[in-house]
């Protein structure tokens, strides 16, 4: 792990200078606030702009605070994942294209620490943003809905974090493997299209990384499917390790493709 | 005017403040950048009129350096 701390500093400074360190948390927090507020005022919003016919009665479902956490997770599953893919698809392939990588590859650094420095910093930014977003939502849910038990929230966040780490690892390792465009396409295929497929026909199996988010939302209910839950967690963990090794290997193999 | 007062400002205000910060960050970045992906003036309008989505689109697509 030669030069890991130096590379970590380089990554941190780069993300501060291109403002990713600031805009990604702000966007996640805005979504975290909007979700409880719009759900709370939904009946009034529909009354004023919904164009409902005069005298029509509509009973709105009574949302509990827990439901808002799950619906915010639904937002992050699409918009959040898109932000992760689009913001970090060029992490490694873009460096190869712009020639920054050439300046790095001539120095005595190991590709392990090169890949891990990116992995640690990107995960830090994204996990920090997701947690900040859920904490902002939690604050509003306590005001507008009912208080949610802290134990449930942390169990939910811990489980969901594993899925987020999986998403970041997919994007980074594909970025080491392919050019930026291919990274974007394949990451969206793996993280969003397969997630939809899993939710449509996923009733036939209980163990898959795409089910981790569903298992996370089950933390709020008393239904627990222990065996499927722990198997999915284990499988996701193994896949993360495999993808990291694959990414390091591909970063090394594609080093010659860098622009000089 | 009474409708204006009915809006729960204490709930909405944090969203507005955060959007303004995001917009300010996007504009600072746009002004400091020498080259953008597309005309400079177009991005100013997108950031100022596009609210949350405008700033996000600028951060993702406006800063391709060639």
Which two chains have the most extensive interface, and how many residues on each?
A: A-B, 19 and 18 residues
Which sheet architecture does the biggest sheet of chain A show?
none
Largest sheet of chain B: none
Overall morphology of chain B: elongated
Number of strand elements of chain A = 0
Residue share in helices of chain B? over 70%
Name the average pLDDT of chain A. 89
Structural class of chain B: mainly alpha
- The run of helices and strands of chain B is HHHH
Q: Specify the overall morphology of chain A.
A: elongated
Low-confidence stretches of chain B: none
Instruction: Report the portion of residues of chain B in β strands.
Output: under 5%
Mean pLDDT of chain B: 83
Quickly count the domains of chain A.
1
Which helices and strands, and how do they pair?
The complex is a heterodimer of chains A (260) and B (66).
Chain A: H1 4-17, H2 20-49, H3 65-88, H4 93-98, H5 100-105, H6 111-144, H7 150-177, H8 180-201, H9 212-217, H10 226-253
Helix pairs in contact in A: 1-6, 2-3, 2-6, 3-6, 3-7, 3-8, 6-7, 6-10, 7-8, 7-10
Chain B: H1 2-6, H2 9-32, H3 40-49, H4 51-61
Helix pairs in contact in B: 2-3, 2-4, 3-4
Protein name (chain B): PLD nuclease N-terminal domain-containing protein
InterPro entries (chain B): CLS_N
Organism (chain B): Sporosarcina highlanderae
Give a quick rundown of the structure:
The complex is a heterodimer of chains A (260) and B (66). Chain A has 260 residues and is mainly α.
């Amino acid at each position: 792990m030669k030069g890991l701390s130096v590379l970590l500093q380089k990554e941190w400074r780069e993300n501060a200078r291109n403002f990713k360190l600031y805009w990604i948390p702000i966007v996640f927090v805005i979504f975290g606030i909007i979700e409880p507020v719009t759900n709370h005022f939904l009946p009034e919003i529909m009354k004023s702009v919904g164009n409902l016919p005069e005298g029509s009665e509509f009973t709105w479902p009574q949302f509990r605070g827990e439901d808002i956490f799950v619906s915010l997770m639904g937002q992050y599953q699409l918009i959040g994942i898109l932000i992760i893919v689009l913001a970090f698809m060029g992490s490694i392939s873009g460096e190869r294209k712009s020639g920054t990588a050439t300046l790095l590859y001539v120095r005595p650094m190991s590709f392990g620490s090169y890949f891990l420095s990116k992995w640690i910093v990107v995960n830090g930014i994204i996990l920090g943003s997701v947690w900040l977003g859920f904490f902002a939502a939690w604050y509003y849910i306590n005001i507008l809905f009912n208080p949610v038990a802290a134990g449930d929230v942390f169990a939910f966040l811990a489980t969901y974090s594993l899925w987020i780490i999986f998403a970041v690892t997919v994007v980074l390792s594909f970025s080491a493997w392919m050019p930026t465009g291919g990274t974007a396409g394949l990451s969206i295929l793996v993280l969003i299209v397969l997630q939809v497929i899993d939710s449509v026909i996923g009733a036939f199996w209980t163990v898959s990384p795409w089910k981790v988010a569903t298992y996370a939302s089950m933390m709020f209910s008393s239904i627990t499917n222990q065996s499927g839950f722990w198997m999915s967690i284990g499988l996701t963990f193994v896949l993360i390790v495999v993808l990291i090794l694959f990414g390091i290997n591909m970063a090394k193999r594609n080093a010659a493709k860098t622009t000089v | 005017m009474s409708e204006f007062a009915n809006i729960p400002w204490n709930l909405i205000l944090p969203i507005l403040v955060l959007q303004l910060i995001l917009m300010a960050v996007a504009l600072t970045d746009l002004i400091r950048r020498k080259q953008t992906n597309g005309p400079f003036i177009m991005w100013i309008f997108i950031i100022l009129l596009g609210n949350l989505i405008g700033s996000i689109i600028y951060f993702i697509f406006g800063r391709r350096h060639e």
